[in-house]
Amino acid sequence: MEPSDEVLCRRIAERDDRAFDLLVERHQQRAYRLAWSMVGDREEAKDLSQEAFLRVFEKAGSFDGRSKFSTWFHRILVNLCLDHRRKRRGWLGRIFTSDDSEEPMELLERQPSPRDDPADEAAKRETMTRVWKAAARLSGQQRAALLLQVQEDLSTSEIAAVLECSEPTVRVHLHRAVSALRKTVGSE
Question: Taking the domain 1-92, which CATH number applies?
Fold first, then answer.
């Protein structure tokens, strides 16, 4: 039986490199995907997700187990991404070009059907591009709340723990994000 993330974190605090490697292996793809969704740049997402793992290694001893490891880790990663966005004032997100059109579809982890109509596929891809452009214009907190719910499937209480705010505040962030997306995407 594989050790839990919480057990691995305790072993990392004792400087067990194998535990660290296993934890990175478990969470690396999801961490990158979340970072990419927040910052919209592949290289920056790689750097930020790696930085989050370095922080886990450095601060594993401070993990007190009051929350799940994943909540603690998401908080580290989201805060790094939000700080990164704040440092780049005026950043409205990366505008997806045709070269990047596949990556938003990858985020949906959509399985293609052999009966899909190419015209339908093109329309879906265009819609997703508009959605991601609109999402790039959300505030950092709104975008983080939306991504944690949709992409990471976290509950409102888990998102509140990650963002260090109340559940009603999370619901407000989600409501405003969805309203903004509907307004932006519906008007285009």
Answer: 1.10.1740.10
